[in-house]
Amino acid sequence: MAFFLIVLVTIINHVAFKGSKLLITLFAIDLGANPLEIGVVFAMYSVFPVFLSVYAGKVSDRLGFRAPMLFGSVGLVAGLTLPFAMPQLSSLYLSATLIGMCYIFYTVSVQHLVGSFGEGPARTRNYSLFSLGIGLTALLGPTTAGFAIDLVGHRATYALLALFPLVPIAMLAFFSRIVPRPEAHRTDRREHRVMDLVANVPLRRTLIASATIETGLELVNFLLPIYGHSIGLSASQIGVLLGAFALALLAVRTVMPALVRRSSEERVLSVSLFAAALTLLAFPGVADFTLLLAMAFLLGLGLGCGAPVSLVLAYNRAPAGRSGEAIGLRQTVNKAIEMLMPIIFGSLSTAFGMIPVFWLDALMLAYGGALMRGDARNKIKSGQPPSAG
Predict the structure, then answer these.
(1) 164-185: buried (b, 16+ CB within 10 Å) or exposed (e) per residue?
(2) Residues 228-237 pLDDT 10s
């Protein structure tokens, strides 16, 4: 029961978080920002998480899950309230910065918490169910924000989204038993260095693959709304487009545990990344809304397994007692990508158009797929069972 309550709390929080990413892009456009400026605004979500993710993991290893989750929820409310109080471009920079700085503590802690609920196949199943919840927010967040923008405007939509995290805050504050305490590990934490994790070759390859996945997700979150706006789609249509992507995430994550059982985490991740790369090669230049829906769905099928599988691999490949730190390191890498990619994508699309951006990201995803394909082969050669998750 506690596991499902945690998933529910996270869904409520993440609807607001996901919705804010579409909202901040379209509000920045409405305020006259160009793609590069929008990229910088979007990147502010990830500036502080680059430096705080590992620390957030250490906090969850040492102090438990509830306090950092509560801190992140409160910060999310504060960040969403800012643009409502000050509807100007500068407040969007502050909002994204505050949300990113605080919410990373919630993200790392809840991912660590989910991994602690079981071992082996149970852990894979739990991460799959958790990722289904996150996938649902990728549907509900953008569609809620898109329709709300068309109905009540950008400023009021921020006020609407700020109401969502109040429920998790109340549950975490007054029903503390839904969050179990972490298992104690007797290790000398003075010997723990981040570079020890980086030197762990299997973990490092997981981090690289996770980074390539994040480039694809950032392209969807950041560039797709700009691309949709450039071809004349309404906010509602862009929200539905992102909703189609999210539906595919839900579909593929539903069958992910079965796919892993029949093969391995590495092979599933490899095939997924190659499929996403092929879809991105064909994506730019399509202007028909129906075709865009189909391609967004295909892209979601390709990227859908990425987050849960890379989480399982990061947790499984971490040293004992340092799983939270390893997940924090994964978030550091991902947030660095989230910080850099919008700026890079915005600069390239401003200078050369959007086609080179889509194709560059296809190459990155293909590289991640090749990396995991090599790990899958090595796993077979070493005689390991099909799935260690």
Answers:
(1) bbeebbebbeeeeebbeebeee
(2) 888 888 888 8
